[in-house]
Every structure is written in C-alpha cells, then in structure tokens.
Amino acid sequence: MKEKRSKRFKFFETKYFGMVIAFLIFSLLVCTKYFTDITNKLDLKMLDFNFYLKNVVQKKYIQEGVTQSFQNPNISPDILILGIDFRSLNRFGKWPFPRYRHADLIKNFARIQNQNDRERALFIDIFFIEPDSIRPYDDALLVEALKENKRVFLETVLDEIPPSEAIRDDYITRHEILYERFGKITNVTGNWHTVTTYYGFEPPLQPLAKAVKGYGHANFREDFDKVYRRQGLITKSSIVTDMIDIDELTVDYKLDESIFERLGWTDKNGIDHPIAYPLTIDKLKSLKEEIVKNSPPVKASGKDGEGEYFFIVKKYIDTFVPSITLALAIEYFNKKPGDIEVKVGEYIRIPSPQYFNVEKQQWVPYQLVEKEAKFNKEGIEIKPEVKKVVEDIFIPIDKYGQMIINFMGNPSSADPGGHQTFPVRTYSTYAASVPSSDPSKWPKTWMVANKILMLGPFARGIASDEKTTPYGLMYGIEIHANSLNTILMNKFLKEIPSWAYLGILFIVILYTAFITSRLSTLWAGVITIASLLGYFLLTSFIFETKNYIIHFPSIGIGIFFTFLTIVVYRVMTEEKDKKRIKNMFGKYVSPAVVDQILDTPNLERGGVDKNLTVFFSDIRGFTTLSESMTPQELVNHLNLYLTAMTDIIMEYYGTLDKYVGDEIMCFWGAPLPQENHAILACKCALKQMDTLHKLNEGWPKEKRINIGIGLNSGIMTVGNMGSLGRMNYTLMGDNVNLGARLEGTNKEYGTHVIISEFTYALVKDEVIVRELDNIRVKGKNKPVLIYELLDVKGGYDTP
User: Fold this and answer.
1) What is the DSSP string of 60-72?
2) What own/partner pairs with CB < 8 Å and gap ≥ 24 does 34-38 have?
3) Residue 207, preceding peptide bond in cis (omega within 30° of 0)
C-alpha cells in the first residue's frame, strides 16, 4: 500500500507530471489549429511580418546623392508594368480615357520595325464589359488594334451573383468565345467541388473576345483581416443547365463528372450547397428533409390551381477559369490551358515549360539561375552564373485552388526616382501617338523583347483598384505582377505538411516541458526565451532562403504556455512542499543545508537506513550547577550554553535532533548525504570544547560548565517519526544507543570526548587520539574499542 502511494505521489512530481502537461497543451493546440481559426489568423499575421523582414533591393552608396541598386535576383526581368499614373492623367485628362487611347497604345507595341523585339504578351487590366455609348467608333478601333497586335490578354470578372436573364445568354456566348480561342482547363483531379465557385461572370464584349490572344479572371479573395495574400489560380464558373423537382430526383439520375457536371441546392440565404454524388436512397431522404426545411419553395408553373409549390435541385456544369496571371504564365511557357494538370489541394503542373530565346529566335527549355555570377571589385565576372533546366513547374495550391503570393517587396512608385520593386513605365509614353501605317516610319524597338507587359491603373483616385497586402496598399496590377513573378521564378511559398508541423510542435513542447520541469525557473526561463528567439530566427531564415512557411505563432504559443503552465504547477505544488521542508528541517539544520535539501527533490525523508555519525553531549554536575542559581538564572545560563553549542553544530553542517534537558543530540549524514560525516562530527566536538573553555573563562567558578561528548558511526535508521499530529526527524538503532553510552563513559575515564572504534576507522588518518579501553556496553555482546579524541591534524576550521 505504501509503495503504491509512493508511486502515485511520484507521478505528480513536476518532472513526471510536466510531461502530462506537455501532452495536454499539445492536444489543445492541435484542436485549436484544425478546428478553429485562432492560430491560423496569427499565422497569417506572422506571414506578413516575414514579408516585412525580406530585403528587396540592396543599395550601395557610391558618393553623395548617388546610389547603385542591385535588383533582387528573385524578380523576373521579363515583367514590366505600364502604369496609368498622374503623368498620364495630366496629359490625357480625366479617367476613364477614351478607348481609342488604349487602341493607340496597343498599336504602338505592334508597330515596330524589329518584330523580334515584340512583347510576349500585353495584359490590359481594364474592363470592357459594356459598349462605349459616347464614342461607339472607339470600340471598332480597339477591336482593330487587338487584331493587329495579336498578343493582348483581357480579363473576365467573376461574381457570386448570376447574371440577369436579359444578359445571361450574351455573357455565356462571350465566355464560350474565350474558351474556344484560348482553350479550357480539363485535366483536373482531386476533390474539384471545393474549388471556389462563381455563378456570375462579366466577360469582355464579343468582338473583343474574338480578337484577344487570351483571357483570365482578375479576382482576388481577401483573408479574414481584409488583406490579400492569395490568388485563386483556378476558379469554377458555374452555369445552371437544368432544374429538377426534388420529388423527381432518383438514385438513377445520371451526371457526367468528366465534363464537371454536379448537383446543388440553394438555401433561403442564397448560399449554394453541393450534393454528393452518386445518390443513394438514404442520401435522397435526408436531402429532401433538409431542402424542404431550408430551401425557398418555387411556385409551380403550368399546373392547375394556385398556391402549389415545389422544391428544386439545380444541375450545374462547371468550367475551370484560369487567373489572368496563370494564363500569362502559360503563354510565357509556350503552353495551352489544356496542357496543364491540376490536382486540387496539391498542385498545378505546367509540363516541360519553354522560354523564347530572343537572341536565337527560338523556343528553348526554360531555365532558372541556380547560382548567381560572381564579380570582382572592378565589376569583371570571375565566375559565371549556373542555370538549371526546369523540367516541370509545380504550383502549390490549396483546396480552393489558391496560391499564396510571394510578394517581392514594397509597393512600387510610378516616379522613376522612387522605389520600384517591379519596373514601372508610364502609360502616356506609349499612348500619346500612334505610328503611321508605313513600316519604314515605325520605331526600331520599344525594348520589351519577350516581356509580359501589364497595363493598369497606377494613380490613386482613378479606380478602386488598391488592395491591402502584407506590404500595405498596392495597386491591383502590381499584385498581379507579384503573382505572375511567383510562377515565373518558381518561388512558391510552401506550407510545411501537417505531419511535419505536428512533429515540430510535439518536439518543442516536450523539450520545453523537459527543461522547465528539471531546471530552476530562472534557467528554464532563459532557455525558453532563447528557444523562442532561435526558433523565430530559424523560421525567418527558412522563409527567406527556402520559401517554406513554418508556422511560428502556434508553436511559439506552445513553447510559452508549456513553460508558464509548468511554472505555475511548480509554484502550486513544490512551493508548498518547500514550505513544509523548511518547517521540518529549519529547526534542525543550517539555512544552507535547508537550501541544499530544497535543491534535492528526490531526497529520501522517510525511514531509511544510512551510514551516519551520531553526537551526544551532556553537562557534568548539572545538579550542583542548578542549586547555585535561581530557576530563571539557570534557564538564561543554559540558553547561552546551548546557543553557542548549537551554532557550532550548524557551522559544521550537522543536523540537530533534540535537546533533552541539558543534553544535546545531533548527527551527520542525513538528510543530505555527507561522505565526511565522521570528521565533521569530530571537528565539531573539539570546536565545542574550545568554545566552552572560552565561555568558562568569562563565568564565575560556580557557573562554569563541564561536558562530556560521545561519538559513534554506523548504520542507523533515520526519518520522520512520531504521530500524525506531531513528528520529529530523528534516529533509531543500536549504533545510536552506543553513542549515548559513550557520552556517559567520559565520567569513568575523566575524558571529554570519546569516539568508538567505528568512528575512528573513518578518521584515523586525520585525528590524534589516545586509546582508552575495550568496553562492553549494554545491548552489545562484543566489546567495543574506544578512544579519547585529542585533536585533528589539519585543524578544525569550518569546512
């Protein structure tokens, strides 16, 4: 029973129960991570901070007012922003500009003498959804320019609300034209139902759709904090192809999932709910109950009577629409939408990407710089750059089809002297005039060979196109540029897999619990802070160099709360235990020994057998002494004597057992182990005799005290003994009794300090003694050799 209780109490010791606390915190954080958005929100804020720490452009000051900039090698040189900036507004007037201005710009890029220096694609981030009601002829000019340029990409806008019946067919036709010209994404596997779905769309006008080179949606979805960090590289455009009465829906209903057909129903709040396929009897039963309860009824049409309603299920056909940045990347790599592979929740694969080599005027395998070129102080290349062929590009996407944008730096300025993460040229340069139809008068080049030109608003107030990003407000066209650059440079931000996250979380929490439960709070705190700082620096370094997102907040919270919880637990349990120890041993041992006991949590304090040295001292002629003084005088005199003797015991790290009248009992070797317990007791005895001699010199003859001391060493039982209400830490055993007998033996031999042969065996090389006799004491059959202790060879200074 006692052993079971001991094991139970041991389990609740901090060093063991701390591991239980670690498991509990680990479980709590796992639940918080996967069943709430708390840690995910913190992770997003940490992602913003990691962006903040990134170095985009290094500047080296050469002389006063002159700087040399080193462009970030992670930014593609083939991305160029054409900003509709304040210079453009000053030149052309208020926004929006007439469409002929855009036509002039488009023609400008088409009309250069060196056609080998043409742009790879020209993306115009302007909507052309409605015809120009003021200058209808401008639409014709724009169509003519698109046909002449042959490299323009326009965007379609996707919306949650379906188009009205009046424009639905026209909008569907516009989309079909875009699909026909540029192609569709058809190789989609995985759970494609989770991809973000839009039921409305606003494509460019039909004549424009027939003239463009490509298209893509321009939608972004903000995170919980209204910050844009991701782009849906693929989204679903859903069109209702049929409406079915729920009562007519059967398990035999056929869907062609190869062309992405699906079923769904809409609740009273307008939210669409997908229906799992294939259907079963049980699914249909529960589905009908849910629809009748939560879906708005539709009034019957073509039936007799009034007030008849039924509930409908919608049949959709989904089309996967690429983002404009994915469409531009596909064009840049000489691919078509039908070439790419999508595995929802994992990746988009662009196989065997190619790059147009302007010098060779041919398509070659796409390469990226693996090691940058090195230059000496004079700027001469001493080591060429090393490039590596990119076999396939794998773009990591989540279950919604979104990619995390790897923003390259702060928002760019349209001012040539301002900060530019991406190069920005003003729209006005290319739209001010258009070359004649005579090729001989065309400019030689615009220096945009194989570049992707991205045209869009770049001045505040002309469009609601500024969005909050990790770097603050940024124009939409530059967000597109960052997204495109992420793909072109293969610099994808990848979140570590769940198993890796759980492994890191488990290890750091267990590590924190281990050190906190075994080290002092101060050292555990120092190591915890150092661990937090080190982990933060490590995650930031990996983010910067390897583009891996290793979540700091949730794991940092795990480290902090593990430390805090265990410290609180220690305060609640160990402080109580320390108080009890201080109350128990503070009366017996010196404060230094008490501190050592507190620092030794596994110290046995129950009844145990130990090799100890016991010490007894008693006053000779106490009766005569007491008769010469009043009771009060006697008490005061004894207190002086006992205080001096006790102080010496504490000085030599002894444990005071008790006072029995004028008798003192103490011992060495417990509660803390002391290998030199015997010599400490001997030194203490001699020191007491010296101190008593000095005290006697100051007292009158009738108050002088004479004492005898007995020392014995051996195995004794030590521990807390007594009743539940009152206990003492004391000794028991024959060797204790022998020590008491030796103290009384001093009377027979006229000595002051007698030690047994057992004590002498432990200190014989360190003390000077006089052999007295072989005596037989009560309780011992074998005679014991005793010695008078005279001195210690090395002196008996305090250890």
Assistant:
1) EEEETTEEEEE--
2) 37/224
3) no
Q: pLDDT band at 343, cuts 50/70/90?
A: very high
* Residue type present at position 541: F
- 287-293 — which CB contacts under 8 Å span 24+ positions? 287/246, 288/246, 288/247, 291/246, 291/265, 292/246
Cis peptide, bond prior to residue 278, ω within 30 of zero: yes
Tell me the backbone φ, ψ of residue 607, rounded to 5 degrees: -75, 110
189-193: list long-range contacts, CB under 8 Å, 24+ apart.
189/341, 189/342, 189/343, 189/344, 190/342, 190/343, 190/344, 190/345, 190/346, 191/344, 191/345, 191/399, 192/236, 192/260, 192/318, 192/320, 192/342, 192/344, 193/262, 193/274
663 pLDDT more than 60: yes
Residues 6 or more apart whose CB falls under 8 angstroms from that of 136 comprise none
Q: d(Cα 152, Cα 124) in Å, to the nearest integer?
A: 7
Lowest mean pLDDT among 59-63, 616-620, 757-761, 795-799: 59-63
Q: What is the pLDDT of residues 473-497, one digit of tens each?
A: 999 999 999 999 999 999 999 988 8
Mean pLDDT, the chain, as a whole number?
Answer: 87
Q: Can you tell me the mean pLDDT for 438-466?
A: 88
Contacting residues for 752 by C-beta, under 8 A, at least 6 apart: 689, 707, 708, 709, 746, 788
Residues in the chain: 799
- Mean pLDDT lowest for which of 51-55, 402-406, 688-692, 740-744? 51-55
* 203 preceded by a cis bond (ω within 30 of 0): no
pLDDT digits (tens, 9 = 90+) for 491-534: 999 988 889 999 999 999 999 999 998 888 889 889 999 999 99
Token output for 368 = 């990226």
Identity of the residue numbered 760: Y
Q: What is the 3-state secondary structure (H, E, C) of 731-771?
A: EECHHHHHHHHHHHHHHHHCCCEEEEHHHHHHHCCCEEEEE
Task: Sort residue 788 into left (φ over 0), alpha (ψ -120 to 50) or beta.
Answer: beta
- pLDDT (0 to 100) of residue 147: 95
657, two tokens: 């057992």
Q: What is the pLDDT of residue 211?
A: 95
Dist CA 378 CA 33 (whole Å): 53
CB 324 within 8 A of CB 155: yes
pLDDT computed for residue 588 by the predictor: 53
Do 688 and 646 contact (CB within 8 A), yes or no?
no
Q: What is the pTM of this model?
A: 0.74
For the segment 197-202, the average pLDDT, to the nearest whole number, is 92
pLDDT tens string 372-395: 878 887 778 778 888 899 999 999
708 close to 749: Cβ distance less than 8 angstroms: no
Report the C-alpha gap between 663 and 620 in whole angstroms: 10
Two tokens, residue 444: 């030689």
C-alpha neighbours within 13 Å on the C-beta side of residue 345: 8
Q: Which amino acid is at 634?
A: L
CA distance 51 to 227: 13
Q: Is the pLDDT of residue 3 over 50?
A: no
Q: How far is CA 456 from the centre of its chain?
A: 38
Strand residues in 270-372 grouped as ranges (E):
272-275, 298-299, 309-310, 312-322, 341-343, 347-351, 354-357, 362-365, 367-371
Q: What's the CA gap between 390 and 368, in Å, rounded?
A: 7
Q: What distance in Å separates the CA atoms of residue 166 and residue 172, rounded to the nearest whole number?
A: 12
Measured in whole angstroms, the distance separating CA 755 from the mean position of its chain's CA atoms is: 66
Contact 710, 683 (CB under 8 A): no
| 28 contacts 562 by C-beta, under 8 angstroms | no
State the virtual CA torsion across 364, 370, 375, 379 in degrees, nearest 10.
50
